[in-house]
Amino acid sequence: MGQCSGTSHERDTPSVVRSTGKKKALLVGINYVGSPSELRGCINDIMNQKQVLIEHYGFNEADIYMLHEDLAKDRWPYKAAIQEGFRWLYEGAKSGDLLFFQYSGHGSQCHNNGSMADCIFPLDCFNNPLPGSV
Asked: Helices then strands (H, E): number in the chain?
């Protein structure tokens, strides 16, 4: 996000994101706790990203929608919850708005209409066969 130029110090500091509209972010972190594919640090990734968005890019906490396993179960990153998160992110979006998405978890590539596409693995991906679960 942003561009860096100028002195060495300026390159180390993120530039301010200028937006003429609303700023919204969807952050998804999945550690797959208790599964054979458990990860560590994905929730930390999005918690750190949230702080960066607030402190360096002027996002309001109320405009950051988070999904992860440390929240109430209705905010766990199941496929339906991630899709709902995208609906929230896009709702009311217009020219000049800044929409941000971060995903931290397992991913892969899946066949999509004869070509390969990147895909993410929601928390409930183990319950359904590919590609329907991603």
From this structure: 3, 5
DSSP string, 22-72: -EEEEEEE---TTSTT--SSHHHHHHHHHHHHHHHH---GGGEEEE-TTS-
Determine phi and psi for 4, rounding to 5 degrees. Answer: -115, 140
Cα separation, 68 vs 46, whole angstroms: 9
Q: In this structure, are residues 32 and 105 in contact, taking their beta carbons and an 8 Å threshold? A: yes
Q: Distance (Å, rounded) from C-alpha 50 to C-alpha 134? A: 24
The strand pairing partners of 26, in sequence order, are 65, 101
pLDDT in tens, 63-111: 999 999 999 999 999 999 999 999 999 999 999 999 999 999 999 888 8
